[in-house]
Amino acid sequence: MATARKGSVLPIANGNDMKNSNDEPVLIIGGGICGLLAALMFERRGMRSIVYESREDPRIKPWQAGSAFTLGISYRSWVAFERYGILEDIRPHLLPFVGRAVHLPDGTIRRFHVPCSDQTKKLLFFLARELLVKLLLAACESRKIIDIRFNCKLVRIAQSGEITYTDAKGQTRSQMGRFVVGADGAHSKVRESMQFLNFCTIRKAYHEYGYKQINVTPTASGECKFDPSTMLHMYPRSDCLFMFLQNKDQSSCGCCFTTHATFESAKTDEEIIEFWKTRWPDLMTIIPDFLKQWKEAPVTPIAQIQCSQYHFKDKIIILGDAAHAVVPFFGQGANAAAEDVCVLEEFLDQFNGNVQMAFEKMSETRVSSNQALQDMSNSNFDAMKKMSMWPIIKLILEAKLAKVTPTWLFEPLPTIVLYSRTPYDVAEKRAKTQDRVLSALFTGLGIACLAALFKAVCARFPA
Predict the structure, then answer these.
(1) Rounded distance between C-alpha atoms, residue 124 and residue 393, angstroms
(2) Distance of alpha carbon 412 from alpha carbon 229, whole angstroms
(3) Within a 13 Å sphere around the CA of 365, how many CA atoms are in the beta-carbon half?
(4) Domain ranges of the chain
């Protein structure tokens, strides 16, 4: 029998179809952020759901290394948290983003506090992924029509929408539902099943960079080892990027991004020490157990997923990383997943509960939007791993320009992405247009300055 939460109201399935499809539960594969938010969304609509999670309950046994990654929480997630009644549970654990520091190889630290409005200050936060999952689990368990089952692994999905899975004891079971929601991450079994049923185009690629997660504990007195006035610390080097995000308990979550070949070059104690000494000698003091952590931390690959559509008829829909996993360099992976849930609900409302029409609209609108997010995330990483200050200076200049121009005329890309629900593809197109206008403006100003200088020189030294 599968492991179910206490108070479960749904019986263990034995494969018997229910006579009335309206009595059938929505079957959600994946008990992470996206899957649990989807369960809360369906509960708000009065729809029962079963959440199948292949791993154990993270409150009993923490999930594998890498799952404790600190998340950036922006407006798109904020909307979902508020809509599904969990914002007040999450709010006390949020840590506001107040700036970033770039640590250069020569020891210089450049601190940047990008100006933002009073409104936006309320909407950008950090939160540990593992903590968010636990808060969402608690919220789901308080709803009587949500059933969560751990240690349940999907085997296949039939064209009818019936799923076959193995429970915690390895027994094979089946369950029929209204439809299946795939929220099982970048390595989605739902997506794999949908591909065979739908013959849709799915591209799965791995970024040349992977990452190791390194944690920084607070000092003995409980203080953060980094400057607490700066929430994001970046250590760009020629062949890697180390980033640290602060947590509410004053610990910090660090991720070292580099190529798999570079990771392979630092495996023995001597190689690891030399690797750190030539790149981050100051971090060796801040993280005294860096050697142990580095050797124990697995190299986590970064998958990128592109799908030509997100649904199969009215039977399957994939959301979040299962549909559009992105590199984590724009802080929008979890936010895009939360928005998927909101958008799906909005389309269900728009089409009066017609599942197939809502699913079709999801594919029509979200595929292009999330592809734009992938492009922007990759571009942002290219800028971050370089040691040039220009990308950050550009952000500051754009923020200052935005203060003196109306939003319909100019708005920085991060502001559009982080503080609104503008579709990602619309945001990308607008940013490209603004860049062309700014380039033309600066070119014109440059030409005007040169002309004025030339005129002044001619006046000073007449022929």
Answers:
(1) 20
(2) 24
(3) 15
(4) 3-95+125-204+303-381, 205-301, 390-460
Q: How many residues does the chain have?
A: 463
Give the three-class secondary structure for 125: strand
CA distance 129 to 410: 33
Q: Per-residue DSSP letters for 153-184? A: EEEEE-TTS-EEEE-TTS-EEEE--S-EEE--
72 SS3 class = strand
Tokens of residue 317, six digits? 């829909």
Residue with tokens 């040039």: 388
User: In this structure, which CATH number among 3.60.21.10, 3.50.50.60, 3.40.50.2300, 3.40.50.300 belongs to the domain 3-95+125-204+303-381?
Assistant: 3.50.50.60
* Intervals of the chain under pLDDT 50: 1-20, 115-121
**pLDDT digits over 12-56, tens only?**
333 333 334 568 999 999 999 999 999 999 999 999 999 999 999
pLDDT given at position 14: 37
Find tokens 């949020």 and name the residue: 94
Tokens of 186: 């970048």
Comparing C-alpha atoms, which of 351, 427, 393, 338 is closest to residue 115?
393
A 10 A CB-CB count for 222 gives 10
CA 24/CA 14 separation, integer angstroms: 13
